[in-house]
Amino acid sequence: MKVSLSWLKQYISVDSAPSEMAAKLTMAGLEVESYSQIYNYLDHVVVGRVEKCEKHPRADKLSCCSVNVGEKEVAIVCGAPNVKKGMNVSCALPGAVLPGEFKIKKSKLRGEVSEGMLCSAAELKLNSDTAGIMDLDSNLLPGTPLVEALGLSDYMFDIDLTPNRPDCLSMIGVAREIAVFQEKNADITIPDAEILQDKLCDVLIEDLVKVDIFDPDLCPGYAAGLLVDVKVKPSPFWLRQRLESVGMASINNIVDITNFVMMETGQPLHAFDYDLLTGGRIEVKRAGSETKFTTLDEKEHKLEPDMLMICDGEKSVALAGVMGGMNSEISENTTRVLVESAYFNPVSVRKTARKTGIATDASHRFERGVDPRGTKKALVRALTLMAKVSDASIAKGIIDQHSKKSERIEIKLNTDALNRRLGTDLSLSVIQEILESVEFKVIVEDEKTLKVEVPSFRVDVLLPEDLSEEVARLWGYDNIKTSFPAMPARQERLSPKIILRDRVKDIMKGYGFSEAVNYSFTSPDSCDKLNLAGDDERRSIEAVLNPISEDLAVLRTSLIPGLLENMKQNVSKQVETLRLFETGNVFFAIKKGLQPKEREMIAGLWTGASSENSWHSKKVECDFFDIKGAVEGLFQALDVGDLNFSRASEEMYPYFKKGYAAVIKKDGRVIGSVGQIDPLVLKNFSLKQNAFVFDIDMSFLLEIVPQSTVSSPLPKYPSISRDITIIVDCDVEAGDVHSSIKVIMEKESLIEDVFLFDLYQGDSLAAGKKSLSFRVVYRSFEKTLKEKKIKGLHSRISKILVDKFKADLPS
């Protein structure tokens, strides 16, 4: 929003310096990005006195003048017919840059030296007079800067407004803000909005114009007025100057008034050539089946059915609140003008402007919200000014249609709540005075309650919190004392979930895994890449309403695709050995309109070498037992206790290679899985080298991880180890045998540990058989064990295993 200081002074007496005013506006929430002199282009333009004026020896229409510019006299060749000796003139000296990027420099004209230029008012953009050079007051001293001599000091402020302050998209709106920090009794002068009686004619608007609002939800209010005997011509200087001071170009006297009133009041207006409106009708309705419309900028736009249009009896003549059409624009031949002032639904205007790609001063205001009660006032103001600048007459009557009256908003404000919210101690009377300074009507209900009526132009104020913001900014943020929240002396303990997550991360990093952090969004085909079946829960994907890209259009149901994508990126950069893990939520769709079900998981991936390359060891590729060992190490560090690994079904885990996958169980419940990625799945991710992964449900981990650690004293007595070797069928799982020994271990206090240390399959065994060797560690915490004590127990364990698994003992 560009604001001219001289224009502002038409509504309020400004007593602050430009720098002070910029600072105060910024602190009031209207950030002034910059301010500058509007007439700074008049640098090097001074008052000059013509001391001598003679005819040019080689040109009939030129004069050679000697001009006193204060410290010296300069020779200037001039072509103005009114130049004469003794007159004071505006003189542009070398170095000046006049409007149109016209640079003044020393030169020769028809052989005579010219050290400047004597200027007309039009050449300096001070008025439209082109008849000759400016004849200045004879009392002015030569050499006086022209800006100072003519009192042309004016500043333009460039204000960056937040979207919630559409009321300040006008001169009057900014004047209201300035009035708050001016001296007391600084009243705003609002121009009269009354039709001049001497401009009325005998024509009745009702006889010529009919307005119908077919979509009142998109246009709650529409006002129109009519001008006859209009003379469309260039705008007078004062009007052009006002618009140019805020960066707007002059078009003609009618269109310029619509822009002037918009900048003054914040209410956009539009002028139609009445004679181009079929049947003198205005219909406000949606585009419907109409598909194309050509706007004033001569561009054709594609319409959508819900776009609001202004139509006559046969065709569309404007995109409501955005831009008018070529088929009804004001031209030199226009003699009757229909002026529109309406309130359009902000959302409707915003959508139309975005979809058509049109951004105008009108749409900028409508889509933020204009004063719903200000349409008629702005219309009357525009009709009056148009009648003056175009010598027109105004038809009797105003069409003012509203589907419903704009209701006043009343808010009850508790002063104690406001002070708590702001950290202030303002009295009720001070709060009342602050709000009334920006035209809120305030009624005192009791000693702690105010009833506040919001002015219609403040469309952003709806709640007590909004009033608190008004008080804070007008009281002054610098006046609010800085305070800090009370810090409790005790330290709050983190939630068990966060503590467990941090422990898991530390353990995995200790095992050489690096943490990956991926988006919770993934590609819609991620389930297909994992070969998941159609009825699998992991295909219950939830679509993202506004995806970042097509590859991130759904919420993930597994962490594994993300890790495989990480592997692909690393392998493509020749990083072939990789250990990664990730913790994060996965999501499962339940029903449209409901939040998806979330589950926190931890997943890991290992690919490439089993250990770092070294001079004393050869590179060994990692395998299933490496990733399984990492999982066992994690659970051991968490002190979870015994786990069971059993063969995973192909139906449940189709992304694992057959025979190289296991489910992780604790107390009979599945808490995760571990395995080798199937080659077909690797191909789906454009990978060739083997990858091993695991994933574990963190919520189950939280249940089984002990909250405290139980320590035991170091043993005083030595242990004794004995081995058990049994020959079983190949389909017998070593884990089941190990679990059976663990069951015995729970009943026998002398058994300290048991582990598998050898597996053999070969020619010395019958087909379909394998040998499993377990080492059992015995120890007593009370005395030294003797061979006789443990021999019977060890034999009993062997017999139980042989009977249970139909095993043989080695011969």
What this model shows, in words?
This protein has 811 residues and is an alpha+beta fold. 26% of the residues lie in helices and 27% in strands. It is built from 21 helices and 40 strands. It has a seven-stranded mixed β-sheet, with helices on both faces. Strands 13, 15, 16, 23, 24 and 25 form a six-stranded mixed β-sheet that branches. It starts with a strand and ends in a 6-residue tail after the last helix.
What is the SS-derived class? alpha+beta
**Residue windows where pLDDT falls under 50 for at least 5 positions:** none
Strand order of the largest sheet: 29-32-33-37-36-35-34
Number of strands: 40
The radius of gyration over CA amounts to 44 Å
So how many helices? 21
Q: What is the residue-averaged pLDDT?
A: 89
Question: What are the SSEs and their pairings?
Answer:
Blueprint: E1 2-4, H1 5-8, H2 18-27, E2 31-37, E3 45-55, E4 63-68, E5 73-78, E6 88-92, E7 97-98, E8 102-103, E9 107-109, E10 112-114, E11 117-118, H3 146-150, E12 155-160, H4 171-180, E13 200-204, H5 205-208, E14 210-213, E15 221-228, H6 237-244, H7 253-265, E16 269-273, E17 281-286, E18 292-294, E19 300-302, E20 308-311, E21 316-319, E22 323-324, E23 337-343, H8 346-356, H9 361-366, H10 375-390, E24 393-396, E25 399-402, E26 409-414, H11 415-422, H12 428-436, E27 441-446, E28 449-454, H13 464-475, H14 496-510, E29 514-515, E30 521-522, H15 526-529, E31 554-555, H16 560-571, E32 578-588, E33 597-607, H17 624-637, E34 644-647, E35 656-666, E36 669-677, H18 679-684, E37 691-697, H19 698-704, E38 720-729, H20 734-747, E39 751-760, E40 769-778, H21 787-805
Parallel strand pairs: 13-24, 14-17, 29-32
Antiparallel strand pairs: 1-12, 2-12, 3-4, 3-6, 4-5, 6-11, 7-8, 9-10, 15-23, 15-24, 15-25, 16-23, 17-20, 18-19, 20-21, 21-22, 26-28, 27-28, 30-31, 32-33, 33-37, 34-35, 35-36, 36-37, 38-40, 39-40
